[in-house]
Fold:
Amino acid sequence: MSHWLLKSEPDVYSIQDLKRDGSTEWEGVRNYQARNFLRDQIKKGDLVFFYHSNSEPSGIAGIAKVVKEGFPDASAWNKKSPHYDPRSSQEKPVWYAVQIKFIKAFKTLIDLQMLRSAAELNQMGLLKRGQRLSVQPVRESEWKHILKMTA
DNA sequence: GCCAACGTTGGC
DNA sequence: GCCAACGTTGGC
Structure:
């Protein structure tokens, strides 16, 4: 099993929204590197950190589980969607999504400052300057360390 | 709201 | 294929 980190702006969709909905399609990713993770590497049963970006503060807000792996992102061929992309079609999809379900919301968010202060996490893409990928792999050791920080 | 970093677009 | 211009991300 692999671990991942998914970024969302809580103003748009937060961990509380996921708790309310139970599960959701993680769609709208329009970056090829992130697309490749969604399409090729994220598997059913994988666990993901749900990260709140562009937030006060930003940080890891909870955990979700992948319940359906890589499938074509239908929002790409929905003209009314803000993520509409005419290059993608049902016959030749360009973008992919996964479905995730709510597992837990942390009592207190693990904010960026806390993450940065942990030497064990300094290899995380999330903490690297200029790293903007909205879907990132998380190493096993990092996953465990972050879980300890929630205790 | 600012702006650095990065990805994409399009003229040449 | 280069690269300037532009748009987006996301911390601060």
Summary: Chain A has a mean pLDDT of 94. Residues 31-32, 129-132 of chain A lie near DNA strand B (CB under 10 Å from a C1'). The first strand of chain A starts at residue 3 and ends at 8. DSSP finds four helices and six strands in chain A.
